[in-house]
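Design review, sub-item: ligand-bound model
Attendees: FS, YL, KQ
YL presented the inputs for the flavin-adenine dinucleotide complex:
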Amino acid sequence: MATVIVVGGGAAGLVAAWRAACLGHRVTLLEANGRLGVKLRISGGGKCNLTHAGPPKELLGAFAKDQARFLRPSLHAFDNEDLQDLLRREGLHTYVRDNGRVFPLDRPGSAGAVVEAFEALVRRAGVEVRLGARVAGLLGRSPHLEGLLVDGERLLAEHIILATGGASYPETGTRGEVLGWLKGLGVPVQPWFPALAPIPLQQARPAREGVALRGGSLRLSVGPEGRRLAAFEGDILFTRAGITGPAALELSQAVERARREGAAWLSYASTLESPEALDATIQAEQRDNPRLLASTWTQRYLPERLVEPLLTSAGLPKDLMLKDLTKPYRRALVALVTALPLGEPQPVPLARGEVAAGGVDLGAVDPHRMLLRGWENLRVCGELLNLDGPVGGYNLQAAFSTGYAAGSLI
Ligand SMILES: Cc1cc2nc3c(=O)[nH]c(=O)nc-3n(C[C@H](O)[C@H](O)[C@H](O)COP(=O)(O)OP(=O)(O)OC[C@H]3O[C@@H](n4cnc5c(N)ncnc54)[C@H](O)[C@@H]3O)c2cc1C
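KQ shared the predicted structure:
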């Protein structure tokens, strides 16, 4: 039996502590907040999309190749079914939405129920939980970490597992400082980087706040006429400062990288048809339905609230019928639908990301037990690793699986 300290009472730390205690070790869980699982409680808008359905191979396919390779052993050791079985034994049932996302079933807003289930598990396994315990430093150096500094006290242990999360939503306790300490100890790391975050725009349009564009594709290019860098199919939602919604979140990391490289420009295609195909469609409509208002036709693709101001800014008369649509007007309409300009982004905020990209280099960690290479007793897991999956329950599953691997110790 060994002494183990787990730092961080989020998804990864809870599972790591529970697993190590179940294996008979003496485990202390340190959490900076006054309660456990603060970020878990706000995940999925309080509903907690705790994992994604499907075989491990499919889940891994959602991650970048190097991340998938790293995750494979820990996901196989503790996958989405293992997670749901564990929770079911605690009385927490789950259901799968059509899009494969898995949520707790029993209570509305049940992210809290997930935390309560894990809290019960760790306490029953005999883990000593210390809340309000913010670790202020690491004691020791490669290959051995002796312990940690907490409130001026030196806490020593034979094994230390760092599960301190990322650097977004710092108000939930994740300030990202542990990554700097590890770097100072010679551990290879990638700096924190924004991901799955809303995108502020240079030209924010508060009048559009609350309007959604659906069923199309958000596109990132080097300029209005420039090369396409990336695209994501999905909805966007205008906010006061810019855009959010699935496509904005998924593209945000690429947008910030392009912006830092000096060229990022966004547009939204409200149809997946090409401009040429849409031009043919509108010409057919001109023949079949000449008295249809251009604004009514446009509303098939764009929300009503946007159509009038957009047509006005494109110089189209309000009551223009399709029969009177000249070629330049037709081109203007097609352009609004196939490439609505959103313009240049502003810096994507790290703090508002559902995850933070960056973290401990995956190459520096043994993917079976999360032991840092060159160290004999220091493990890292969860978002502190350089792992970031898409929206859909993948990030929590990665935290649970890597936490389980870290807690397995040997
Ligand atoms: C708004 C929001 C919604 C999300 N929704 C989903 C979702 O529905 N599905 C999904 O899969 N993912 C979602 N995520 C991502 C997911 O929550 C994270 O990937 C996951 O919580 C990471 O788990 P973790 O255990 O690594 O870190 P965390 O859960 O962040 O836990 C880390 C813990 O470490 C503690 N800590 C940090 N530093 C110290 C220190 N120095 N000393 C002591 N304690 C410390 C923190 O207080 C924190 O409690 C969401 C994230 C956000 C912000």
